[in-house]
Every structure is written in structure tokens, then in C-alpha cells.
Specification:
Blueprint: H1 4-10, H2 15-28, E1 33-43, E2 46-53, H3 60-63, H4 73-80, E3 85-87, H5 89-93, H6 98-105, E4 111-119, E5 123-131, H7 139-164, H8 178-188, H9 193-200, H10 204-218, H11 223-232
Antiparallel strand pairs: 1-2, 1-5, 3-4, 4-5
Helix pairs in contact: 1-2, 1-7, 2-7, 7-11, 8-9, 8-10, 8-11, 9-10, 10-11
Length: about 240
């Protein structure tokens, strides 16, 4: 079974619920603000940015200014890397962008963690959490926060594609039979093949066959990958 905290964001049914879930998760990690940006490359150097965040109202205009992206070292890191960046004032001053940090610090953006996922077909997802207090001094504690954020980003990206990306740009949804969908649903609930068979009134062998067929149609090599992809595509919930 998927951990409840990560599964919740994938169960979001609209943009507002998605926003509530990413804010809840950021607060759980003791960060005040959070930003989730879905980027769709349109070709010829044009990209569409879909923002979901809780940016302070008076900072929104600055935050949404595309001309500042080219100077922001955190944004530039996420544009090119998938490794999370832990940033603070020195990150900006080293890149000659200390003035950007001074301005955002007035709104509580003094330090944080950001990362990006780069998917096929020109789609990208950036997730960042920020706060005005120093990050934990303990390397182990900080590493746990980064790991939690990375895992959450994978689930949040899946929800963002389903809820925010235009249907025409979403991956093609494979056609699964009702039995295959039921088998995946009960697999998501942590049932073994024998238990799935008992619930559905079929043999264990037939339950395995349904799950394997679903894996094949979804292009996955494990049942857990198949569950995640089916959730992302909105085939099960």
C-alpha cells in the first residue's frame, strides 16, 4: 500500500485539492511556502508554465516575472539538473544575484530545497519548499527531508499531469478490462494475488494473469509500477 501522505496528493480531484495537499505536505516538513510548477515545452523556445503555490500576495508579481528566471540560480539549477538543490543566501551571492535573495527574503524566502523531474515529450515538473528559518543542522535530518520531498514530488507530478496538463498533451490511456482494473485496485490496497482472487471470486492464477496483463498494457515491469501509472492516468483511485 502506498503511504497515505503520498497517496493523498494522487487522489486530488481538482486544482484546489492538489494545492491543499502540497501545502499540507510542505507544512508537515516545517516549510511555510511551496511551489509546484508544471512546464510544457511548446517548441521554438516557447514553454507554458502552470503554477500551483501559496506565494504571499505581495510577492506574486515578482515571483511570476519570467525575466527573473534567467538570473535565479535555483531555477537555473532545476532547469538543467534532477539532483535536489539546498539553497540559502550564499547560493545567490555566488552567482551575483544577491539582490534577488534580498528581495525575496522580505517575504520569507530565505532558504529552501528545490528539485525537478524531466519527463519525455517536453514536460517538466519543479517542486520547491521555502522558509525564513535556517534548515536543520543535522545532516541526517536534512537528508530525510530531501528524501521525503523527492518521493512526494514523484506522486505530485503524476497528479499534476492528470489535473493540470491539457488532455491533448497527456499520455495515451491504455484500455484495461474491468477485471484488470479491479485486480490493480486490490493490489494497491496491499492484497496478495491469493487475496485478490478471493475478493473477486477467481483463482489465484487468474488474478496473477489479470495483474500481468495490466502491467503489459501499461508498459511496466512490476505490479507496483503498474499501480502508480494507473493512478497517474486516473484509471484507478
Amino acid at each position: 500500500m502506498l503511504p497515505g501522505g503520498y497517496l493523498s496528493v494522487m487522489e486530488a480531484q481538482n486544482r484546489d485539492e492538489f494545492r491543499d495537499e502540497i501545502i499540507r505536505f510542505a507544512h508537515k516538513l516545517e516549510f511555510k511556502t511551496v511551489s509546484a510548477i508544471t512546464v510544457i515545452d511548446r517548441g521554438l523556445g516557447k514553454s507554458e508554465f502552470i503554477h500551483v503555490d501559496n506565494t504571499p500576495e505581495h510577492y506574486t508579481e515578482t515571483y511570476s516575472d519570467p525575466s527573473l528566471y534567467r538570473r535565479d540560480p535555483v531555477t537555473q539549477h532545476c532547469k538543467r539538473q534532477t539532483v535536489p538543490i539546498i539553497w540559502d543566501q550564499s547560493t545567490y551571492t555566488r552567482q551575483g544575484a544577491g539582490d534577488l535573495w534580498e528581495h525575496q527574503a522580505m517575504y520569507g524566502y530565505r532558504t529552501g530545497i528545490a528539485m525537478a523531474l524531466h519527463m519525455p515529450e517536453g514536460q517538466h515538473f519543479m517542486l520547491g519548499v521555502d522558509r525564513d528559518q535556517p534548515l536543520p543542522a543535522s545532516p541526517d535530518h536534512l537528508q530525510r527531508i530531501v528524501a521525503d520531498l523527492q518521493l512526494f514530488a514523484v506522486h505530485a507530478q503524476a497528479a499534476a499531469v492528470r489535473l493540470l496538463v491539457p488532455t491533448a498533451l497527456q499520455p495515451e490511456r491504455p484500455s484495461l478490462t474491468p477485471r484488470e482494473l479491479e485486480a490493480l485496485h486490490w493490489t494497491m490496497e496491499g492484497k496478495t494475488a491469493w487475496e485478490v482472487g478471493a475478493v473477486l471470486g477467481i483463482s489465484e492464477r487468474t488474478a496473477v494473469l489479470h495483474v500481468n496483463n495490466a502491467m503489459h498494457k501499461l508498459g511496466c515491469t512490476t505490479k507496483h509500477q503498474a499501480v502508480l501509472k494507473a493512478l497517474r492516468l486516473g484509471l484507478i483511485n
